[in-house]
Amino acid sequence: MKNHTKIRCTWANTNDELMQKYHDEVWGKPVHNNQQLFELLSLELMQSGLSWKTILHKQQNFEKAFYNFDYHQVAKMEQQIPDLLQNTGIIRNKRKINAIIQNAKMMEQLEKQGTNFSELLWQFVNHEPIINSVKNHTDIPNTTDLATKISKHLKSIGFSFTGPVVIYSLMQACGMVNDHENDCFAK
């Protein structure tokens, strides 16, 4: 009898169904929707210094706390910061919460200027995913020169908590970079 088990990246070989689903359906798949990109950016900055598993298991709480990452709503959340800091369902880090709100304001500002956030990001990869050859996930860098370049640009226009590591994680999450292992079914 043939084994029909999917071959996944090593990091997704887990019994954690949320991690498997994220690996199979999200990570490395191209995203061009501004609200989805804002959500991924927000989750990636929340993950900074923590495990992705922690963030993934709190994602629904984040969605509830941040209006499903509708950046127009999030941009107006400054007065809700004290409540967010009491919300045990999310990461209660004031710098990170402030950054999400600041980034929502920047998303709105870009929109008012006629700049599409997706277009802004994807132009850095000429609108085509970079497909890396990855034998083992431990070979994947935590950042690249391109992520540093994007980070500097985003910071220069007012985005917050968008360092090179956060940006490289975003690039992986939104499919600008495909870092699935070579033998992974999602490659």
Automatic annotation (TrEMBL):
Query: Which UniProt key words apply to this protein?
Result: Metal-binding, Zinc
Q: Which GO terms describe its molecular function?
A: DNA-3-methyladenine glycosylase activity; metal ion binding
A single GO BP term for this record reads: base-excision repair
One Pfam family name from the record? Adenine_glyco
Q: Which residues bind Zn(2+)?
A: C9, H23, H180, C184
Source superkingdom: Bacteria
User: What name does UniProt use for this protein?
Assistant: DNA-3-methyladenine glycosylase I
Q: Which organism was this protein described from?
A: Fructilactobacillus lindneri DSM 20690 = JCM 11027
